[in-house]
């Protein structure tokens, strides 16, 4: 199958007609993403201020650390989509989904700005940490390396090496950043609600997780489609490289979480979070067709329920919102 017939390609005049839809999974994810549209200020974060003021220094450090990481990285994802994914796809349905995903990343950035506006967090310190904290800067440098390859170097998507670079970028952003590193942060963020703290902040994270779950589905589907359509990528050596990328990312996250939780907080320490990281990495490996690497149990069984955000409870109104725009009867 040639590139122009498959999902990859750079022709400006290609992918201009939506119907007939070739990649139904992308079209369905776009429609679901539109139905999931939400806005940060619909959540009354101010109601969590009392909880924030009662938190320990270690708990406030963890929350500030999370904002330091999430805020710039939501925008980093958008750069990866704009430079490293969108220009190399032919399918209109993929372009529709990516446009909505980019809006969602911007919305997440605004959501985290809302957190910084609402809680008495030192914004300058939060902004500087992604540069000054070595473990956080290392993660960012890892991701930036892939953007630079896609944006600053000549990428010929018709060559095997060009296609490999495309897949490497997807793995770096969709699988590692969004599918492992972000989920590690979500688990820490949602752990406060497990102790009946920051319930509205938890609702904000729920909505972000719901978006990210679709980003992950799109990325995994896209990787598997590219591999299926391009036999030259189906080599043991390339598979080993991708697997090693993921295992290396787990080590980086392990170091980062020790800085996030240097002394631990009630009911949680870095070892606990890092077991969850290894558990999530095994799930991502399986989704890509690999055997699990760690074989560890999920230490946070409650995250399964927390991540099932199809039915969300609006805690400040105590009503079931099941937040969907233009929800249709099924």
TrEMBL record:
Positions bound to Fe cation 2: 105, 178, 212, 215
Keywords of the record: Deoxyribonucleotide synthesis, Iron, Membrane, Metal-binding, Oxidoreductase, Transmembrane, Transmembrane helix
Enzyme class: oxidoreductase
Reaction(s) the record says it catalyses: a 2'-deoxyribonucleoside 5'-diphosphate + [thioredoxin]-disulfide + H2O = a ribonucleoside 5'-diphosphate + [thioredoxin]-dithiol
Pfam families attached to this UniProt entry: Ribonuc_red_sm
GO terms of biological process kind: deoxyribonucleotide biosynthetic process
Gene3D superfamilies: Ribonucleotide Reductase, subunit A
The enzyme's E.C. designation: 1.17.4.1
Binding site for Fe cation 1: 74, 105, 108
Sequence intervals crossing the membrane: 170-192
Cofactor: Fe cation
Domain of life per record: Bacteria
Recorded GO MF terms: metal ion binding; ribonucleoside-diphosphate reductase activity, thioredoxin disulfide as acceptor
SUPFAM superfamilies: Ferritin-like
Family matches, as InterPro entries: Ferritin-like_SF (IPR009078), RNR-like (IPR012348), RNR_small (IPR033909), RNR_small_fam (IPR000358)
Functional note: Provides the precursors necessary for DNA synthesis. Catalyzes the biosynthesis of deoxyribonucleotides from the corresponding ribonucleotides.
Quaternary context: Tetramer of two alpha and two beta subunits.
Family membership noted in the UniProt record: Belongs to the ribonucleoside diphosphate reductase small chain family.
Name this polypeptide is given: Ribonucleoside-diphosphate reductase subunit beta
